[in-house]
Design goal:
It is built from 15 helices and no strands. It is an all-alpha fold.
Length: about 325
């Protein structure tokens, strides 16, 4: 591993913190405090309660993927393990800590490569839904977007076409191997070479029916999330069209997957300021909304912490 890769692994999260510091310099803190005072607590309570159906649908999706692989857990155990993984994922760049769910499966006799398949598919199903929803939802609002946002989507489209081209050349397997080597410690990579074959072979189990079921459950979890975000936005006083708000939080959700920040701090803030600007939403109000989204993530992590105490695992 060269010096650049080591520095990237160690300091990638700093980009988000730098962006956040830049945003703070541009804020009027008096207006920020006024936006905080105007937040309606009743809406926050409803949004907080929505965390439970979101986590249920996500753990159900993971449970289904495991069953297709022949790994059988009841929904209760899947919920505990999934939420515990989310707890570990919140403070790590790109939520890499969620890979801890694989240790639960490895403890019960599954290879690390086989265990990672469910986590990988869970993340890919989220990513596929996010990209698809952005593409469809954005068709309604191209006219209100500024040049910067259109450039962003153009880049996203080019990236999608690049991925499609790579799937035709067999390069995806090489990219997957490099991506997972990026997260696996060097001293573990000899074992990983064996596990990677388990990882690849398990994908042959899945067919169109199972992929469709995964995407339907994923859609349910994101529908619950959109409801949570819509209630949260009304509690802050953000009144924008429901579809536009859904597209906005979808884009921010996609951005927070990129491992260049911790819990989306900085990247989420910039994305919300930019995307809400066409509706003349002050950046101070957008920042409060972003902070409440982070609060909801921390609430999910708190639920995960409780699950961790109920069903701990040695990492």
């Amino acid at each position: 591993m060269n010096l650049f890769s080591k520095l990237l692994k160690r300091y990638s999260y700093l980009l988000g913190l730098i962006l956040f510091a830049f945003v703070l310099l541009k804020l009027n803190f008096g207006e920020v405090w006024q936006s905080v005072e105007n937040v309606q607590i009743s809406y926050l309570i409803i949004a907080a309660l929505a965390a439970f159906p979101i986590l249920f649908f996500k753990s159900w999706c993971w449970n289904y993927i495991l069953k297709v692989q022949g790994i059988n857990y009841n929904l209760k155990d899947s919920f505990l393990m999934y939420c515990a993984g989310m707890y570990l994922g919140v403070p790590t760049p790109g939520r890499v800590g969620e890979m801890a769910m694989a240790f639960y499966l490895k403890k019960d006799g599954n290879s690390f490569g086989k265990s990672l398949v469910s986590i990988f598919l869970d993340r890919v199903s989220d990513l596929a839904f996010l990209v698809g929803f952005i593409i469809l939802g954005s068709l309604f609002f191209v006219s209100v977007w500024r040049k910067e946002i259109l450039i962003f989507f153009s880049g996203l489209a080019i990236l999608a076409m690049l991925v499609l081209a790579l799937t035709k050349t067999g390069t995806i397997k090489w990219i997957l191997k490099k991506a997972f080597y990026f997260f696996i410690p060097e001293k573990k990579q000899n074992n990983w070479k064996v596990n990677f074959q388990d990882f690849i072979s398990d994908f042959k189990i899945f067919n169109l029916k199972s992929y469709t079921a995964i995407m339907l459950i994923t859609a349910l979890s994101w529908s619950a999330y959109f409801f949570q975000m819509y209630v949260l936005a009304w509690g802050v006083g953000l009144h924008v069209p429901w579809i536009y708000l859904s597209v906005t939080v979808t884009i921010t959700g996609l951005i927070t997957i990129i491992p260049v920040s911790i819990s989306g701090i900085g990247t989420r803030d910039v994305a919300l300021i930019l995307l809400l600007a066409p509706f003349l939403i002050p950046k101070e109000q957008a920042i409060v909304f972003s902070a409440l989204i982070l609060f909801m993530s921390l609430l999910a992590a708190l639920i995960g912490l409780v699950c961790w105490f109920i069903k701990p695992i040695k990492l």
